[in-house]
Structures are given as structure tokens and as C-alpha cells.
Known about the structure:
Blueprint lengths: L41 E12 L2 E12 L3 E5 L6 H7 L10 E9 L2 E2 L7 H7 E4 L10 H6 L10 H14 L3 H4 L12 H14 L4 E5 L7 H14 L4 E5 L3 H7 L2 E9 L6 E10 H6 L4 H7 L5
Parallel strand pairs: 2-10, 3-8, 3-9, 6-7, 7-8
Antiparallel strand pairs: 1-2, 1-4, 4-5, 9-10
Helix pairs in contact: 4-6, 6-7
The chain binds adenosine-5'-triphosphate and magnesium ion (MG).
The site of magnesium ion (MG) has 3 residues, from helix 1.
Amino acid sequence: MAVHDQPGIGPGIQPDPRPGIVIQPPPEIDDRPPGVGLDRTTVFDLEGLAVYYGEFRAVRDVTMQIFKNEITAFIGPSGCGKTTVLRCFNRMHDVTPGARVVGQLRYHTAELYAPHVSATEVRRRIGMVFQKPNPFPKSIYDNVAFGLRSKGIRGRSEVDAIVERSLRSAALWDEVKDRLRASALGLSGGQQQRLCIARTIAVDPEVVLMDEPCSALDPVATARIEELMRELRAAYTIVIVTHNMQQAGRVSDRTAFFTTEVDSKFARRTGTLVEYDTTHNIFAKPRDQRTERYITGRFG
Ligand SMILES: Nc1ncnc2c1ncn2[C@@H]1O[C@H](COP(=O)(O)OP(=O)(O)OP(=O)(O)O)[C@@H](O)[C@H]1O
Ligand SMILES: [Mg+2]
């Protein structure tokens, strides 16, 4: 069977060389309910962004816009700077010794790295879910309630309501409602990751950043999280790093492909943004050969 006769493979798309895996471009048509996420409000505006660790320029020339109520996926080979760029969005580099962010990074109209901008406030509005679920060694309830105190929410009934709402939004409530006082460490990996999502959304952020949130999970738990991301998109703007191109194709609206290149200024390979477009275009008709080589499994 010719490549283009295979289901789900359009012009320019080759099958993934791994047996049984085909990268299927997502539908071009926007499938979200009318009125949701169609305003194309820019949440982050990056221009010529670069990040240094000491003297080393880890990633450079990142110019892109992240849009409200969309899921944006970052893909690319290891070391290309996906995590580094993601961590810029909630000022995590403030706590990395030697890290320096240069260029423009605007969150709505605010320059995110301006001296008067509070990193604590930034992290309340822009939450992060990590690769490895990291619940606190506390009860399920206390994990979700954790950030509420710093927001000044202390009333018992209000906290109860937010904990329930957050666990419901994270599709975990039914599984834990009878053991809210049990330790979060007794949950399965997939449940722990949904708990971390509940903890993140409990403080009502605008943006949720996810760095390979499913890499420690089995396919069933992964499917749950992917379904959850699609649901959360109505209320949040999501940026996800993933090594799983099928996942990027399934869940994201837009995809940014990063790669590593030898930088003439440094002996080491450094990361750069190659192509950023709708997920459909990235997978069905990439403009850059490097993108095409990567998504067809011939590089990285
Ligand atoms: N804290 C740090 N100190 C020094 N160099 C770092 C630090 N974190 C990352 N780097 C370097 O910056 C570059 C980009 O790393 P980053 O973790 O952003 O890549 P990545 O695309 O997320 O890779 P992976 O897919 O393996 O997670 C790499 O060369 C890495 O070695
Ligand atoms: Mg990473």
C-alpha cells in the first residue's frame, strides 16, 4: 500500500517507522463548542527570547504567541530547550542559579520579567504540573487546599467547596471523595497526577503549564489526562511539553517544534524554535524540512 493510501496520512506525512504507529494529523476543523476560545487573545507574546545558564545560551530566537483557551504543545529532541522555555512562563528561572532570560516575554500587557512584577503572583496565575507527580506528603484534601490559604481563603465551607470543585474538574472526585483525609501518597501515579492538576487549578490560575505530564503514566492514565486537558481548555490556557507526537496530535491546537543546532558562538548545541503553526499544519504540511524529518521519525 502506498504511503498516502494509508488512513490518516496526508501529503508530506510518512508513517512513523515504529511498527504499528501512525502519526495522524488532527482534523483541520476547529472542534470546540462555538464561542469557546475563538477570540484568539494573546496570553504570552515572545520576541527574540533567549535563555542562558551562566555563559551557555541554552535556547535562542524564540518568537511566538500563545493564545487563550488553546492547548499549545512543545515538541523536539532532548535538550532543545522545551522545558527551559516553559519555565520562563512562570518565572521558575528565578530560582535556578545562573539562569538568565533575555528578549521580550509579555504576559498580556505586562513584561513578565520586569522588576516590579511579583514572581509569587505570576506563579499563582500561571500554574505548573511536572513530569513526575509530586503530591505533598499530606492528605488528599490538604494537597488541594494548600494554595488557598495564601490567597486568603480560610473559611471551612469555602475551602470545602473549592476542594470539591477542583477535584471534580480534575476528574478525580468520584475516586477519592470517601477518603479525602487519606494520604495523597497512597494514590496511583495517574491519580496523583490528577491530584496535582487539581492542586494547580484550585488557586484559579489562567494558565496551566505541563512538562511531560504523562511520561510516568500508563496508557489508560494517559488517556484520562488527555481527556482532562481537552475539558480544561475551555477554562484555561494550557502549554504542554511532550515527547509523544501522537499526544501532541491528539490534544493540542498549536504545535511548536524546537531543535538543537550548533551555535557558532558556542561549541555546544543550543536550542532554537524551528516552526510554530496549527497542529494540523505541523503534522500535515510542515514548512521546514527539519520539522518534517522529525515528525516522520527520521531525526531525533
Ligand atoms: N539548570 C541548568 N543548568 C545548566 N544547563 C541547563 C540547565 N537546565 C537545562 N540546561 C541545558 O539547557 C539545554 C536545554 O535543556 P532543556 O531541559 O530545556 O531541554 P528539553 O528540550 O526540555 O529536553 P528533554 O526533552 O530532555 O526534557 C540543554 O543543553 C541542557 O543541558
Ligand atoms: Mg524537558
